[in-house]
Amino acid sequence: MSKKKMVILPKARRVLDEMGENIKLARLRRKLSAEQVSERANISRPTLTAIEKGSPTVSIGSYLLVLQVLGLERDFLLLAKDDVLGRKLQDARITTNDRAPKRKNQ
Q1: Is the pLDDT score of 103 beyond 80?
Q2: Quick one: average pLDDT of 24-52?
Q3: Is-contact 23 60, C-beta < 8 A?
Q4: pTM of the model as a whole
Q5: 48-84: b or e for each residue (b if 16 or more CB lie within 10 Å)?
């Protein structure tokens, strides 16, 4: 069984790149070496390097571990917090299915 290739659109790629750069800058501001952060987060140095480059293949849990080491884990709670579109849809009483429809085997 082959894995599906992940397709990241340019706009999302830029977001990941910026997030990685922000994490790297936060580490440098705290004067922590990559070795220190990777050791404290219990991840490998190459994984930290991938995070700082904004790699989409690194698990979200690893990103959270690094943010925790940097004392920024609360920032994770800000993701999708101000969901303007979702609130407008809710206010318009537009209903959505609870679950996505099942895919047919091809």
Answers
A1: no
A2: 97
A3: no
A4: 0.77
A5: bebbbebbeebeeebbebbbebbeeeeeeeeeeeeee
